[in-house]
Each structure stands twice: as C-alpha cells, then as structure tokens.
Design brief:
The protein is α+β, with helices and mostly antiparallel strands. It is built from 13 helices and 17 strands. The strands form 6 sheets. A 7-stranded mixed beta sheet has the order 1-12-7-2-3-4-13, sandwiched between helices. Strands 5-6 form a two-stranded antiparallel ribbon. It has a two-stranded antiparallel ribbon with strand order 8-11.
Length: 382
Amino acid sequence: MNSAPPEGDPDERAGFDTTEGSRWHRFRTGWTVFRRKHAKALIAAGVVLVVLLGSGGYYLWSLNAKLDNIERFSTDTLGDRPDPNEGDAVNILLLGSDAGKKIPGESQDTTLAEDVDSDTWPIGKYRSDTLMVVHITADRKHIYVTSIPRDSFVMIYDETGEPTHENKINAAFSEFGPVGTLSTVEHLTEMRIDHVAIIDWAGFKDLSTAVGGVPVTIPETFYDDKQKVEWKAGSYNLEGERALQYVRTRHGLLRGDFDRIDRQQNFLRSLMKKVLEAGTLTKPRKLSDTLEAITDHLTVDDAWKNGDIRGLALSLRGTKAEEVKFLTVPIGGTPTIDKYGSIVELDQRRTDELFAMMRAGRMSAYVEKHPDELLGDEDEIS
C-alpha cells in the first residue's frame, strides 16, 4: 500500500462537498473517524488480517463482514498538517481509551465517533493513557512501535491544529479529542500520521479472551494497591478482566508508568505471537471471535477504508512477531512542577533524532545505535 496520496483532493474526486462550512468539511475538520479498539488489538488485527487474507475464501468473507462493524470519524478540521510521506511507509497513531464517563448535560450513550462528529467535544468524558506511534517500513518487513508516556509534558494542540498550552500529553485527548491528539503528536514528531486507531478497554478484554488467553511472566511478586491485586511471581495465561488488570497496573511497580508501558508492549508482543503461532488463523470459530472482538470496539479515521486495511494486511503477509520492535521515546527526567505535579520531560535531542530517523525510513539504524531503548526480554518485564 502506498501512503502517498494521488494528486488532487481525494474528497473532491469522490464527489464530497468540501467547501468550508459544509457538513463533510466540518466532520473531517473535527477528527479522523476512529474504530473503537485498543492499540494492542490493532497490531494483532493487522497481522491477523494479513495472514488471513491468503488463507482462503471463508477468511476473506469473514474479514469483509467484520470490517463493516468499524466506526469512523473525520479529521478535516486540521488545516496545516505535515506533508504526507513521499515513500510507502505507513504511520499509525494507536490510542487506548476508556468507554467514557458521564458528563453533566451530555449523553453517556453516544459513541466516540458520534462525539467527534458533534458540534461540541465533551471535555473530560474520555481518557487515553496509552499512546503509540506504529511505523511500518516501506518494504513491509519491519514494524516499530514507539510509546509516548501519558505524562509527557508537551505543547497541546486543539482540533484545528492551533497551539493552546503546555500540559501532559494525555490532556489532548480529554480536552480536544482524537483530532487534537493527532495534531499534538504530529507537531511533536514533525511527521504526518497516516491513520488513527482507538480501542476501548472492553474490546481489549474481549480480544484476550477470543485468542484463548495471552502468556506472560511475572518475575517478582508485588501488590497493586490501586486495583487491589497481588501479582505473584510465575507464568500466567491472562484473559478478560485479569488481562486488563495486567496492562493497567502501575502502582506497586518500581518505575510506575514506565513499567506499565513495558507491560503493555510486552503483552502486545505476546499477543501477536499467540495469534500468529497458535493456530488462531486456521480455526474458523476462533478467527471469527478474534475479528469480532477487534472490530466491535475499534474506531478509526474515515480515510482508512476497508480496502486499504485489507491491502495493508495483505502487504504484511509473512511479517513475524520478532520483526516488530518496541521502544519508548527517550526520557530526560521526571521532575515535579507546580499545578501539574510529576511530569515526564522528553530528551529533546534524542527524541528529535528518533523521529528524524523514522521520517527518513532509517529506524533499523536508530535501534542499532540505541539498543538500550528497545523493550527487554519477556522475563525481564515487571
């Protein structure tokens, strides 16, 4: 799949009214439609879709049916965005979100996509503590997943792409929704994000159950006083609520949110291995349950059409779990400042280097130069 768009406005070519003030212009300006689903699920989904496409007619039919369940939203409110990639590399922003809490005067029954399309974004209804930038190389042989800590102190941009104030990066989603988050991340990375995908926590639970559990190792016993859960050292096959507790844990861990990021990445890595190596793709019932768990809880931008998802999946055929590398943006420190409390300061020089190498398609050289930034082995994750 080539991420470089053809000449001309694709919406005009498709016959949409793109004049300022039109409903389509408002919709796309607000935020790209997201499919509701968790970041981890999307990667697994992509690989699942890819391998599955080459496996036969039933799988293709099942995939087509499930993709129609995905919700979408628009990002047209953003005007001044980085130029699209000239090459074939694809960049995806993955967000994990809660289902949304009740806000006075707002309906709790509306979906994320509906809230994005409304005239007013419900400030404070949603939280997103998981942000990952997924970079798929032009040759489709490697995938790099880079986490951005939720407390990273950055300039926050609104849904029109205008700077507002400095804050922890997860404030962008709460205050300005997925479109504001997209703009904030694009300004941080100076890189065009091709697509956005959001998965809610319910979808994450369903996915871990659909694949029959995900194997993880707990190296040392500790107690999470926030969730009231004791994790004893040993090996586990986690699914459902227990899997959700694993990826949301940060209390009781030595490095707090940094260890939670490692857990989330480790769980995603293990999930991918389970999907690819445990026969999920060859068992119609399990495959159907897995796809349903993904598509029922996923929201993506409206520019990400079903055909494009299938095409990307097909191009990733043969990608192995070990060819997916996980890392976190370089951290400079974790000071405490008035009003915001403990924050994460990014190492600006190294962060600029990271995303410059990503833009240039040279991530293999970056990880070779900075191997310490890669996620550790499975038995090293707290």
